[in-house]
């Protein structure tokens, strides 16, 4: 029960495949009280039975493209939980046409959209949630190797994730003096709603299972477990960190694929 007595919020629930769901379920299993955030009414309706499984209220709409929506959501979380020991941001979006082909074709509008929802939203949410954060609170976001390397078709989302990872470090510097920690998990590919928008994701998943040191696919449970660690007091000295949870893929050089 690593999170016994802790309360927190997980933003970015779409369905049972969402990393947000795996993280919320893992936190709940470790004794945390968790409330959930969703993008809109459609996901609120879909997420209601999942929230019920965790003993949480109706998922709260938090559309990160609008400050008013973030503010209203934080007010609602405050009414439900009083204070937060953790906050998880599991949100990303880019236009599907920008997740295939050549990065050089990315439009100004597509670039701004991806950066707004996938990177700026993290500091924005933290700003509105700050009055709710307790001393020692742990903040967490989700990133991907495409921030560090040019991964086929990840394109503008790789640029957004690079900005998100830099935001983790600046937020960690800002909030550290108040005893708060800010980290990211860089997860390997898992088939979710968002991941499906990136062209060729299934091929990537199949190929990586044969290449990675652990020789298997990554699951949401792997990500949930690492998230519990970072949200718990066991990680009390860890901040500004990007933790790779990808079965070891990130550290490989060229490697023969086993048949
Ligand atoms: P998902 O589709 O289940 O979750 C993405 C969430 O972002 C959805 O709930 C969606 O509603 C939300 N979102 C989009 N626009 C929003 C807005 N304007 N306001 C609020 N929420 C909005 O997919 P996922 O794979 O669970 O993605 C969660 C996070 O994990 C993302 O940051 C993603 O980039 C990251 N990630 C995923 C993988 C993977 O392979 N699945 C790997 C590494 C990192």
What does this structure look like?
The protein is of the alpha/beta class and 259 residues long. It has one domain: NAD(P)-binding Rossmann-like Domain (Rossmann fold, 3-Layer(aba) Sandwich), CATH 3.40.50.720. The chain contains seven helices and seven strands, in the order E-H-E-H-E-H-E-H-E-H-E-H-H-E. It has helices spanning 19-29, 41-53, 67-81, 108-129, 155-175, 201-211, 220-231, and strands at residues 7-11, 33-38, 60-61, 84-89, 133-143, 181-187, 242-245. Strands 3-2-1-4-5-6-7 form a seven-stranded parallel β-sheet, sandwiched between helices. Strand 2 (33-38), helix 2 (41-53) and strand 3 (60-61) form a beta-alpha-beta unit. Helix 3 (67-81) runs parallel beside helix 4 (108-129). The chain starts with 6 loop residues before the first strand and ends in a 14-residue tail after the last strand. The model has no long low-confidence stretch (mean pLDDT 96). The structure holds nicotinamide-adenine-dinucleotide. Residues 12-14, 17-20, 39, 43, 62-65, 90-93, 117, 142-144, 187, 189-190, 192-195 line the site of nicotinamide-adenine-dinucleotide. Nicotinamide-adenine-dinucleotide (NAD) is lined by residues 12-14, 17-20, 39, 43, 62-65, 90-93, 117, 142-144, 187, 189-190, 192-195.
């Amino acid at each position: 029960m690593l999170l016994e007595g802790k309360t927190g919020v997980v933003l970015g629930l779409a369905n049972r495949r969402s990393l947000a769901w795996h993280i919320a379920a893992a936190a709940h299993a470790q004794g945390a009280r968790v409330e959930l955030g969703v993008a809109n009414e459609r996901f609120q309706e879909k997420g209601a039975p999942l929230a019920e499984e965790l003993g949480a209220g109706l998922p709260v709409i938090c559309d990160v493209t609008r400050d008013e929506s973030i503010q209203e959501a934080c007010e609602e979380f405050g009414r439900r939980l009083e204070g937060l020991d953790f906050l998880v941001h599991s949100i990303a979006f880019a236009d599907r046409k920008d997740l295939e082909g050549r990065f050089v074709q990315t439009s100004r509008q597509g670039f701004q959209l991806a950066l707004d929802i996938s990177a700026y939203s993290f500091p924005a949410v933290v700003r509105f949630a700050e009055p709710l954060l307790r001393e020692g609170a742990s903040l967490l976001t989700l990133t991907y190797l495409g921030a560090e390397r040019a991964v086929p078709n990840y394109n503008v989302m790789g640029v957004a994730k690079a900005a998100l990872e830099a935001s983790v470090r600046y937020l960690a510097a800002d909030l550290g003096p108040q005893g708060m920690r800010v980290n990211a998990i860089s997860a390997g590919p898992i088939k979710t709603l968002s991941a499906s928008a990136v062209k060729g994701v299934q091929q990537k998943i199949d190929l990586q299972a044969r290449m990675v040191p652990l020789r298997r696919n990554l699951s949401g449970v792997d990500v949930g477990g690492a998230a519990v660690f970072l949200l718990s007091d066991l990680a009390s000295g860890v901040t500004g960190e990007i933790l790779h949870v990808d079965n070891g893929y990130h550290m490989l050089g060229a490697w023969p694929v086993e048949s």
